[in-house]
Amino acid sequence: MATSVRDNQLHGAGIGLRLPHLAELVATRPNVDWLEIHPENFLANPHATELLLDLARDYPVSVHTVGVSIGSADGFERAHLDRLASFVDRLQPAMVSGHLAWSTFGGHYLNDLLPLPYTDETLGLVADQLARVQDRLGRAYLVENPSTYVGFAGSTMTETDFLNELVARTDCRLLCDVSNVFVSGHNMGFDPYAYLAALPSDAIDELHLGGFTPEEDDARPGGTLFVDTHAAPVAREVWPLYRAALRRFGSLPTLIEWDNDLPPLSTLLDEAAHAARELAAVETKVVRAAR
Ligand SMILES: [Fe+2]
Q: If you write DSSP's letter for every residue of 196-222 in order, what string do you get?
């Protein structure tokens, strides 16, 4: 049984609530610190929303949208932001987050989180749209670093420079997906530890951990591309990077993100328990260092 929500703050390790697990969560109230949901799964599903509101009495909830495209050159869909704002008003989640990406153009949803060139022009566009999102929601929005497969020759700054500047211009917060850092580092050939070191640590409020799938890289014969499928356990090599993130950023709330080939709920809870042990080790170190 979960503890009741006291301060609506995220602490410890959470799991992504996916609809196939909703009834079991409602019935069993397992021991997990918090839940993250995609609002797009609930906006047109009043029954699921009622069950979620019931769960929100026992678990802090984080809202992670995949439908607000802050990187689209022709603007995001205002009607979707309005729907999200109403949903957030009703649910009162601890946090609201989304992606540094674009996924709509000309009113069409592309069902993918697509990459941006990191230039002054893009920065101005994303900062303007992010400011509008935060104004409409009346709260800070967390921006998540993407998993990357291609870069742009026209980029004039690194992704971490872009994120630092976005924070400075908009007072947004950041969600650091540690698995995305690992995946992108492998695919793009950068050091994931150096990437963590270049992020503005004071701006990070949440961490993600998810599984990826190695695939043959068509662009590099014999090479392997890591694809951020969210369809596997957290990779063994990602846990040391996660520990480095905790040492740098502190014991931030951490989500186990699993969307495809969904396993039994117990598997997600086991992964969250692993993250919780890592979090507890960091907290212990901080306490000992302070004595
Ligand atoms: Fe993520």
A: HHHS-GGGEEEEEEE--EEEE-TTSTT
